[in-house]
Amino acid sequence: MNAGGIILGGGKSSRMGRSKAALPFGPETMVQRVARLLGEIVEPLVVVAAAHQELPPLPPRVRVVRDRREGRGPLEGLCAGLEALQGDAEAAYVTGCDVPLLVPQFIEWMLERLGDDQIAVPVDGEFYHPLAAVYRINVLAEVQSLLAAGQLRPRLLFDRVRTCRVPVDDLRAVDPDLLTLANLNTPADYAAALRRAGWELPSDFV
């Protein structure tokens, strides 16, 4: 299957005090690291940024697109990313920019789970992980329909198209600690991820 990748760059994080995409992670920024890891498995890559968000330099093969409307969450970013991949991929693995410990084999495993479905998404009980999921490009019309109706919860999409719900415990076979699902939302999360990867907290981070 010809699969691409979509990275949602988000915007400024109130809890981090800055854009998570631009946070240093060793010699890279977070979005650079996620793009590198994702690019080991899928191609082409799209980064979706907020309308006025500044991004660190990315490889020429990474296409940058923008949310059309701000403040509408990941479904808006998914829409922009799927539009950018029209004609270039059959499906896309979608992630946030804040998973620097992403395990590439996790992506391969999720792509295999897609089968004849339109979405494959990890599920932990009642909680879904829409930013660690695989979407066929042809779900774009349903995404646009939800946005037009002001329905911004990604979970609504899973009830409208054929969806493979993957128990997170099954994913431990390739990602024992589920690091791919460990998005960084607080300074403590960021510091812990840096330590795990063998890097120190930047001196200018407050």
Structure description:
With 206 residues, the protein is of the alpha/beta class. It has helices spanning 30-38, 73-84, 104-114, 140-148, 155-158, 187-197, and strands at 3-10, 12-13, 18-19, 24-25, 28-29, 45-49, 62-66, 91-96, 119-124, 127-128, 132-136, 163-167. The protein is built from six helices and twelve strands. The strands form three sheets. Strands 1, 6, 7, 8, 9, 10, 11 and 12 form an eight-stranded mixed beta sheet that branches. Strands 2-3 form a two-stranded antiparallel ribbon. β9 (119-124) and β10 (127-128) form a beta hairpin. The chain is globular. The N and C termini lie far apart (44 Å). The mean pLDDT is 94.
Question: What's this, in brief?
Answer:
By secondary structure, the protein is of the alpha/beta class. 27% of the residues lie in helices and 24% in strands.
Topology at a glance:
Blueprint: E1 3-10, E2 12-13, E3 18-19, E4 24-25, E5 28-29, H1 30-38, E6 45-49, E7 62-66, H2 73-84, E8 91-96, H3 104-114, E9 119-124, E10 127-128, E11 132-136, H4 140-148, H5 155-158, E12 163-167, H6 187-197
Parallel strand pairs: 1-6, 1-8, 6-7, 9-12
Antiparallel strand pairs: 2-3, 4-5, 8-11, 9-10, 9-11
